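User: For my dataset I need records formatted as: sequence, then structure tokens, nothing else. Please produce one.
Assistant:
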Amino acid sequence: MKPYAEIGVFGGSGFYSFLEKVEEVKIDTPYGPPSDLIAIGEIAGRKVAFLPRHGRKHSIPPHKINYRANLWAMKELGVTRIISPCAAGSLQRHVKPGDFVVADQYVDRTHGRADTFYEGPTVHHVSPADPYCPVLRQLAIEEIRAHGIPVHEKGTIVVINGPRFSTKAESKWFTSMGWEVINMTQYPEAYLARELAMCVVNISLITDYDSGLVAEGEVSPVTAEEVMHVFHQNAERIRKVIFGLIEKIPAERNCPCPKVLDYARVTV
């Protein structure tokens, strides 16, 4: 019997280690192997696929993740909704470490990443004007709030290539633009989900202030050790939010996401 899941989660093994009767499956894709085996389990009667985007041992840096393979593998399993949590830095003082941000926009500052499934001869231009699913975003906001976690209902996430963090000058620039969050994985992950007509929602777990906010010596520059420490401290909170969100996702999709390809194909 072919493995099946309806909801996909990109994250670490800490999520699916709480599940029973997990089936790990290997999915071959036209774009090469995904980051790891995909674990399929059940939450509130829903079949859920979990994939650690960096690999279960965090051995794949952000600029080397095979994003197309990861999304294609989810699609092969039947997934139509993607929950995409991530560790992220704050670019604004009011967005504090420990807060959650449900992003509504992103800005791509990456380079060299394979970021489309449509490479010809059939051409599609899939609009990312509103890149995240409005239904999933609202459900996520409500679930985070129900757990008493400080939540920012909107936010622009600027995606840098990595693996390096920003210089102070770069970070000041991002802050001056009014963007709230900085991360290394949301692009092209979120956009590729959209190209496959999936619903996608991002939950950014703020782990630190980015380096631009240290100019006056108020906080220390971000380090990888600090990011992972705060993320692991909050792993249980994000797990509870994701599990609760999965339980509330409606069976039917009443959002614009399934129709994004209807007018994207170029015809002559």
